[in-house]
Write a structure and sequence with these properties.
This protein is α/β, with parallel strands linked by helices. It has two domains: about 140 residues, ATPase, nucleotide binding domain (Nucleotidyltransferase, domain 5, 2-Layer Sandwich); about 170 residues, Nucleotidyltransferase, domain 5 (2-Layer Sandwich). About 45% of the residues lie in helices and about 20% in strands. It is built from twelve helices and ten strands. The chain has a five-stranded mixed β-sheet, with helices on both faces. Strands 8-7-6-9-10 form a five-stranded mixed β-sheet, sandwiched between helices. Helix 5 packs antiparallel against helix 9 and helix 6 packs across helix 9. It is globular. The two termini are about 25 Å apart. Bound molecules: 5'-O-[(R)-(carboxyoxy)(hydroxy)phosphoryl]adenosine and zinc ion. The site of 5'-O-[(R)-(carboxyoxy)(hydroxy)phosphoryl]adenosine has 19 residues, from helix 5 and helix 6.
């Protein structure tokens, strides 16, 4: 089955073509992304109205690019999978309306996909991972732990009570005047800094050991920067210490969840999964515990349409389709 995936839930417009023979086993024929970082950089974060307006311009060319790279015409496809939530509603609507138009004109079946389901299944694009597995989804919009029991069966074990970890990276970078998006900059800068240079708090949620909280460490960065010590501390030490705190706050609940639920495999996915220190610390902690960590390569960690096509293909293969009255849902639960 050849499936076109379309993704526009946040600031990336993406399209991909995958070919799948059995549920969850796929070859990526093409995966194209139209990134908007240059547009949002001036504001230090994603501006929803700008994101949706730019999606309108970018979505058809990115779909054309994916089809051309795959060497497949629309008529040769077997179905279309599109993100219908959660995300910015204006952004979601662009991809969804585009998918509906293509489905209507071509007669192809269309299915709506939960963006988080895409992230959870992303490792299957490159690895054979047996279910059940534990997944830490950690991006600019989400930080949550899920047990992936089967296709369509996901159990949420914990989530952030406030900011997502990626948001904390981006806001800390903004406070430090480092530019946008800040995660990658902090990661690179931290290599030259001391992770114990500044003592930042490690938050734990009382009575909920599998939940996360990142607003405190973000405030701690702001308070520290305004202090005398803050002005005298090397930015590299500050970055490395902040990163270490966030990484520890991600690793602890993840390991606890793996132990509690007997997960041998831990999947690390979402944009922050690109963080070198997080990969290093989580892999080491998991290995010491007899577990392994599987992470998609960077292009499938960040928002992409191949993961959406994969998640949608499982339903398309069962003969399912959604009606063209399908709506976008900003807070779509998984
Ligand atoms: O998955 P993604 O592309 O979009 C969302 O769905 O949010 O994730 C983007 C987030 C941003 O917050 C960015 O700063 C963060 O991932 N990020 C990183 C790194 N690379 C990207 N955070 C920490 N270290 C990195 N190397
Ligand atoms: Zn995402």
């Amino acid at each position: 089955m050849k499936v076109l995936g379309i993704e526009s839930s946040c600031d990336d417009a993406a399209a991909a073509v995958i070919e799948t023979g059995a549920p969850g086993i796929a070859t990526v024929r093409a995966s194209a992304v139209a990134n908007q970082d240059d547009i949002h950089r001036a504001y230090g974060g994603v501006v929803p109205e700008l994101a949706s307006r730019n999606h309108v311009v970018a979505i058809m060319p990115v779909i054309a690019r994916a089809l051309a790279e795959a060497g497949i015409a629309l008529a040769e496809l077997d179905g279309i999978a599109v993100t219908r939530g959660p995300g910015l509603v204006g952004s979601l609507l662009v991809g969804l309306m585009c998918a509906k138009g293509l489905a209507q004109s071509s007669g192809l079946p269309m299915v709506g996909v939960n963006h988080l389901e895409g992230h959870l299944l992303a490792p299957l694009l490159e690895h054979r991972v047996a279910m059940p597995y534990l997944a830490l989804v950690v991006s600019g919009g989400h930080t949550a732990l899920f047990m992936v029991e089967d296709f369509g069966r996901y159990r949420r074990l914990g989530a952030t009570r406030d900011d997502a970890a990626g948001e904390a990276f981006d806001k800390a970078a903004k406070l430090m005047g480092l530019g946008y998006p800040g995660g990658k900059i902090i990661d690179e800068m931290s290599r030259k800094g001391r992770p114990n240079g500044v003592k930042f708090p490690r938050a734990r949620v009382k009575g909920a050991p599998l939940d996360f909280s990142f607003s405190g460490v973000k405030t701690a960065v702001a308070v520290f920067l305004a202090s005398e010590a803050g002005a005298a501390t090397a930015r590299e030490d500050l970055a490395a210490s902040f990163q270490e705190a966030v990484v520890e706050m991600l690793v602890r609940p993840t390991l606890a969840a793996a132990r509690e639920h007997g997960a041998e495999t831990i999947v690390l996915t979402g944009g922050v999964a690109a963080n070198s220190r997080l990969r290093e610390r989580l892999s080491a902690a998991a290995a010491a515990d007899g577990r392994r960590v599987v992470a998609p390569s960077f292009r499938f960690c960040t928002d992409n349409a191949a993961m959406i096509a994969l998640a949608g293909s499982v339903r398309l293969m069962r003969g399912e389709r959604d009606p063209l009255t399908l709506d976008a849902e900003a807070n779509l639960p998984l």
